[in-house]
Structures are given as C-alpha cells and as structure tokens.
Amino acid sequence: MPANGLVMAATLVLALWASSAAAVPRATVPASAAAFAATARAVGKGARLTVTDLQLEGEQEPLSLDLERFDVWSPGAKVVLQGARGAQPREQAPPATAFFRGSVAGNPGSSVMVSVRKDGSVGGMAFHKKASWALGKAAGGGNGNGGGIRSRKSRPADMQAKPFECGNDAAGIVRQGDRGKGFNQDPADSHSHDYEDPALADTRKLLQFVDDKQYDAHIALETDAEFLAKFNGDTAAAIDYIGDLMGYADVVYSREINTDILICYLRLWTAGVDSDPWAAVPDSATALLRFRDYWNANMGGIERTTAHMLSGMSTGGGSSWIGRLCESYGNVLNNFAYGYSGVLTGTFNWNGDQGSNPEAVVWDVTVVLHELGHNFGSEHSHDYCGIGGNKQPVDRCASSNTCGAAMGLPSCSSPSPLWNGGAGTLMSYCQRQPGGYSNMVRLRLRL
Q: Which residue of the set 256, 327, 359, 371 is catalytic?
C-alpha cells in the first residue's frame, strides 16, 4: 500500500476510535464512583446510563436509576446576556452539559433528571413514592471529576411552602375555543388551536404513541433582573439552573405527551432592575399581558413554539393562555403563545453538603410545568368534567369554574369519580390541601 494510503487508513482508524470513545451506547456506573461524571458524559445522546447503589436519603435500601441521555437545548440555541438597555448584547452558546432523564428502577411512576456539567459537577432531582430529592455531587460543591452523586431529601416545610396561585382564574383566561370570554382577542388574529373533542384527542394521542413520533416544542425564555438576582448576578449559575428546570420539564412532557421540551432562546438581564423593561406589577396576569405586548412588538424574529417568562418578582404565581402553541408563526404581531411563571426561587439546586437541605424543591418545577400545561391546551383538573359521561370533575381540590360541582374538600384524601385520592396532577390545586406539595409530588399531567 502506498505511504499516503497508510496515512489515510491510519487517520480513518483514529477517527473511528475517537468517535467510539466519545459516544458510549450504554454504561453502568455506581453512584459513588470517582469516575461517575466522566462515565456519564461519555454516554451518547439517546444511549442508556444505569446508576447503581444510589442511596436516596431516608430510603432503607439503595436504588438504581434507569436513565437516557437527551438534549435540553435546541440546535443553534442562543443565550443572550443583555446589559443596560440600548447596550450591545453578548451572545454565547449554551453550556455543554450532559442531561439524563428516566426513573427509579422498578418504579415507572417515578421521575428523575440528572445533569452532569463539563467541570464534573452534578445536579438534578428525583421524585419517588410521594417524596422529592435534590441530587448533587457527593464531594460537595467543588469541581473536578471525583465524588459521584448523592441525594438530599426535601424538608417537610418545603412540601408545605407557597400555596400555588394560577392567575388564569382571576383574570378569566380561558381556552382558545371559548372566545368572547377573558382577554379580548379577534378570532381572525389567532392561529387555530380550538378545543378538540376528547374522544378524537384520545385517538390522536394513541396513534401518536403507536407511531412513536416524538414532537419537539422549542421554548423561548425571557427573564427579569429580579430572576438573575436570585443567583447574585452569576449568569453561569442561572443558565445551569434553567437547563435543569427545563430538563425536568422535558422528563414529564416526553413521558406524558411524547413531546421533547427544548430551549431555543434565553435572555438574561445583567445590569440590575433599571436595565430591563419589566417594572414591578401587582399580579401574574398583568405581568403576562406586559410580556406578550413587549415580545409581540420586539421579538418577532425568535422562532419558537411558545415563549415563557421566568421571573423573580413576587407576583403570586403564574398565568398562561390556554391552547396557544405555534401562534407566532401565523401572526407575529398579535399572538397569544405566552406563559409567565413568577416568584421563582432558583433554589431547587443543592450544593451537595449533607449538612444543608435543598430549598423549595417543588415550587419552581410545579409553577413552570403547570403554566406550560396551559399553553399545551390543558385547563385545571377541577374544571375537567363530563369525561366518559361522568358529570363530576377530575378532582375537587378547588371550586370549579365550569363543572358546577360542590367542592367536597379535601379531595386528596376522599374519593372523587375519577381520582380516588393520592397525588393530584400538575394541573390541579391539590397542593392547597393538607399535605401541601406531597399531594402532587407524582407530577403528572394526566391520570
């Protein structure tokens, strides 16, 4: 063989070796392994990772995690750091974090998200048997590849924190098919996503799963200066947090409705509260309207399925329009594909120190997934009635706006026609009942 042929062959062998070394199809690693981060990051997208011997705090026996690597950021996703208004923004690529989703082995009703960053640090969360855990690096908050992964169970106080408020009720925000109620809109100005007959919806969903066709929802994320202040101005920490938050959203939505949640755009305001266009407002419905008006006027060039605002302001909770996906493609200047989540804490992350507890493991996850659920077409579970001919609502954790049924509280501990106690869904208000967020820690969109 000619010399140049040998060089080409050697180059090909090296390239194939490098490719195989960079993407392992399957790996198993003990939770305490010093090489945990390196092993996990070597797993290719769509490949499986089994984590063995993980001791979830408070559980008697160690558990295994069945995980799959997935993407949180859209191809070509953009992170924008905006200083003072009018200043030139800085753009950067998303961090090269490896994300994994899955469940506790033997418990398909559980959900787990693990993130492994380029520096070897680990984050994530697990929901299992009506309890929640923050996941962190066993060695603490430092960098490097050693240490494995450990867990910390959320405090009972966290499970009782913040009675959830969705501004949709007070503001009269309704699904798009109920035009004439709630916020003013012209039917001709909206891309059609009207109410779909439940039987047809079930058939469509069944066909979707049979075909195994995964959908992608590309979410554009806006923030305010109050949000970045939760991280003391540390943009890297805020970006990592957002990746974990939306990564967990993907765990739920990919499992429940066969849809991957991907971040296509993120903007952080870095020069304080006077730098962003978001003055303080009294409630989430007002914040949602302002967000929509600003983005319709200024952000039409961002292609997205929907846009969502992550806010650190004390606005009581969140608000979203119902059933509005992809409207920006049909009407850039007057669409309603928006949601808003307020009072975010930025603290479901855990520093790995076994002497400290994770704070508010559930709140941030719940409010964002709940408001996204409205964009995807869901009302509150206590407003769903008439399913299968039964006039009663799915649950009675709050008074229904549409079903006309007595509240019959507390529905989380007494039977209702379709939901006989236990955990409520993400679209419920069951966390308002005794037990707080432990009533819905299953974090499911549907029954």
A: 371
